[in-house]
Amino acid sequence: MFRIRPLALLTSIGILALGATACAADSPSIKVSTSSDAAIYQQVVDKGINYLISKGQQPDGSFGKDVGPGVAAICTTALLKHGRSPDDPDVARSLKYLTSFAHDDGGIYSPDSPVKNYETSLAIQCLAAANADGRYQALLAKADKFIKGIQFAGEPTDFNYGGSGYEPKKRRADLSNTSFLLDALQATGAGADDEAVKRALVFVSRCQNLETENNSTPFSAKIKDGGFYYTPAAGGVSEAGKTADGGLRSYGSMTYAGFKSMIFAGLKPDDPRVKAAIGWIKSHYTLDANPGMGESKESKAQDGLYYYYHTFAKALSAAGWNDVEDDKGGKHNWKHDLLVELAKRQRPDGSWVNSDPRFLEGNTNLVTAYALLSLSYAQPGK
Known about the structure:
By secondary structure, the protein is mainly alpha-helical. The protein is built from 12 helices and 4 strands; from the N terminus they run αααααββαααααββαα. The chain has helices at 37-56, 68-81, 89-99, 116-129, 137-149, 175-187, 195-206, 252-264, 272-283, 305-319, 334-345, 364-376, and strands at residues 164-165, 173-174, 324-325, 331-332. The strands form 2 sheets. A two-stranded antiparallel ribbon has the order 1-2. The protein has a two-stranded antiparallel ribbon with strand order 3-4. The relative contact order is 0.16.
């Protein structure tokens, strides 16, 4: 996922994205206009789960050995979030595979992995979802210590401070890694007073296109739209590209990641950072594309679409919103809209895949898990 980007960086270490095929938007497997949301939801989820179990999962419990514990954790979490028990034979097999990557340092990652934070943070969320009886408590405690230990510390003036990133030698934190760090800390019960959470909030605030007392990076005053981008560190990067004057363009997946991270870090709705993020969300409501992407030659509108769906749904669920009011006053039932969009895009075999394979979204197992996780936050009636 990684570099908005869960797993995108994995392609650089020899993991090839599977060949992408066109989505099923033009020939939906379910006629969404003729069924209730609850009926559509159950059909879509059942088909997706069946795909992961019957075609995605390997005999050893993995979801492709070439993508290792990261994708396995995402897929297994999706199954758990939709009611599968940790003792279900299929789930238990994947949990056994995932825990086989536990190291003495507390991390849960592939050997020589440059994405130890991603893999361990994803594993923490998965094991926390399977830990109702405390069976993974010791592993979770060690993993929690590990991800805190690789969080960037040092001087607060360093733009990496408080963030998390790839292999430490790269010396660059990013918002995607940091949001997964905060997801993992939230899953293990860390609150706003946790020192790692406080540090992470410093980095998250610096990824926002908003000049405040919390953000005096060179980019903060160039685009004052309240959205978020990938990183201000190492010269600054936005996967949506730069403006002519060097501003870092905001885009959907990172804005929802930033919004969600601020909620998990304890910021209230009246905080200027939260208000500005909400303003961006109101003016960019869409499920047709990853908003902000495709506005420059560096990106395309469908880049990271399913990662976007996941952060969109998790953030709005964390905020407790039933509707999103756009900047024109229109109200959108985001759960219904997301369900309709994913039902249209689901393929006849129950899977999803992005026709744009950037960020590993040509990997059917990963994208199907993203879709199912997105739906876990959008259950009708909840």
